[in-house]
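Re: [help] complex structure
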Amino acid sequence: MWTQRFNRARLLGALQQGLVLLLVVLVFYGLAHNASLNLKALNIASGFGFLTDRAGYDISFQLIDYAPSDSYGRAYLVGLLNTLLVSVISIVLATLIGVLLGVGRVSENWLVNRLCGMSIEFLRNVPLVVHLIWWYGLMLALPSVRQAFSLADVFFLSNAGLQVPWPQQGAAVGWGLVLMGVGALSAIVAFKCRDARARWRGFTPRRWPWVLACALLLPMLVYAVSGTALHWDVPTRQGFGFHGGATLVPELLALWLALSFYSASYIAETVRAATQAVHRGQYEAAKALGFVRGIAMRQLIAPQALYAMVPQITNTYMNIVKNSSLGVVVGFMELVSSTGGTTLNQTGQAIECIVLVMATYCVICLVISLTMNVYNYRISKRGH
Amino acid sequence: MNELTHIAPARLPPQATFAVRTSRWVRQSMFPSVGHSLLTLVVLALLAWCIPKALNWLVLDATFVGSTRDACNPHAACWLPVIERWNLFVYGFYPEAQRWRVNLAFLLAVGAFVLLFFKRLDRRALLAYLVMLPLLMWWLLKGGAGLPGVSSTQFAGMTVTVMLGTIGMIFALPLGILLALGRRSKKPVIRLLCVLYIELVRSVPVISLLFMASLMIQLFLPPGVAFDILLRVQVVLILFTAAYMAETVRGGLQSLPKGQYEAAQALGFGYWKTMGHIILPQVLRQTIPPLLTQFIGLFKETTLVMVVGVLDIVGIASSTAASAEWAGHDHEIYIFLALYFFIICFALSRYARHLENHLEHDRS
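Output below.
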């Protein structure tokens, strides 16, 4: 009796799932059928062959060489790099501002506390688009190139963007960055090896200065040995524009600042919540042991709060990457506006372009969440 | 013996005067150490310097009356673009004779939040109201069945924002609940499909989904069938919000003690009965605050529809800022925009926190 009913339940379950699956397959089949009919009627090619065709449109800001005569594939790469660039610099700035505001929000100074709270509430309750168009308007309202603000005659800020010195040999810089990574990694590995041999690891001195020194020394050493000298291309005023250096276009600056300030409010809230979530006993114990408040916060509370912050911060970082797609509002050529916008409009291959864009974002988000999970695992192993 | 009977009456500890308490508070919260005192002084100086200036620019010297930009005070804010185009900001290009319909729709949307406030209200009444609200709003705003129709191109301004937000939220809720239940289902196919959907939607930007709505959905429909852009955007916002909502509801489902499921099972309840009568009522009551937070997110997200050419309030504002008639006053327009969103979202977030505190209070 029991087995009979059990089997019937299982059979019903399998039937149900089969039906759902069938329904999904049918819907997808119907959509694909419609799509093929429509594409034939509109005379649009399908497949990713268009990536090798000539793009023919210009991109105002690029990290790798690009000209309108290059392919759509290259344009996609330029867009991807722009997305990554703006995401990375926004993550850095947002973390800085966010931690500052968050620390201010838990300060014992009433005035600072309230001011930070007000700024956080204001920043997070205004949509990112509004932040963005306001910053963009501000960038365009800057003085013209002739009256540009200058800092030590090296940086120039005008309504054409920010002029910065730029190394002449891109390849040398790329290798320098690789060497930096190698230097830092080798220092970390060396520490690991020493740890593995030592029987008791007690109070070891700080490690990050050594890692930093290695990261800086290795590329310098290689440059010195190979005789490479980095030539910085410094911008100079010339006529109606600038000569030399690189231009950070106003679109990039507006997107960077808007993303940073908007996301900083979320990071600040996370910092506040995590700090306040640390058990009250910890604060009291620190006080009883005679810790000054500043030191107690830095050495006792912050390490514990960090653990609680990781999931939220991961979320915010992923949102920054996803929100960088708002570049399309001000016309910054990142992934969505290059491949999902101009390429799509020129080729008409909507399905391929949008799938390409979505797949790229999926991969980026997956990588971030994997990295942060690894970090989370490591700091959870550290124990309190 | 006699002395002992003279016991002094119990007295309260001496109460500090108001001035003493104030000065103590000021010392403790603003000047606890040398560093903090310096910081406080610097901040106070900064505030003293910029608050009068800001007040002058924003309110005292600002222009509120007039009809053209010539009436503006060049050294202060000029709120005329917002005041003169107020109807455009609120109603968009909605026909003037029909504006009562928009007002009524706004009132109905606000009514939903007010109803949440009354805890003693019958659940079924609230549910019925929430089910009717989107249909009623769509009918009121779009017309048909007795009301003259209004084309989608006439929709703009706050009307679009409020409509997309409210209807999106209410339709996304049942979908989100189903997805959350599917994700916790024991049937592998259903679970896999739900997980795929939720994770896929959550890992791509809204803008790419909106692009999909404006450029790709057409290709998947049978030839000859076409939806208007407003409906397509609305559908995408619903599908998008549902994925996020599923995660919120899942959090609520997970936080419910296992005993509730076991008790239902012991009473011989089936799956849908368990969910409908026992689990979901508890979960939904607990998830009202996070769902409100989600609504704030959706409300802010609706501003992105300007990317696909739907003129919401941001679209109207930027076209006003770019118009020759009001050139040079974009800061005032954007400040108004920021304040508009700030006031609504801040009020809603406070309301969510209030409900949350009430829930905590009820539980303990």
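Chain A touches chain B through 51 residues (CB under 8 Å).
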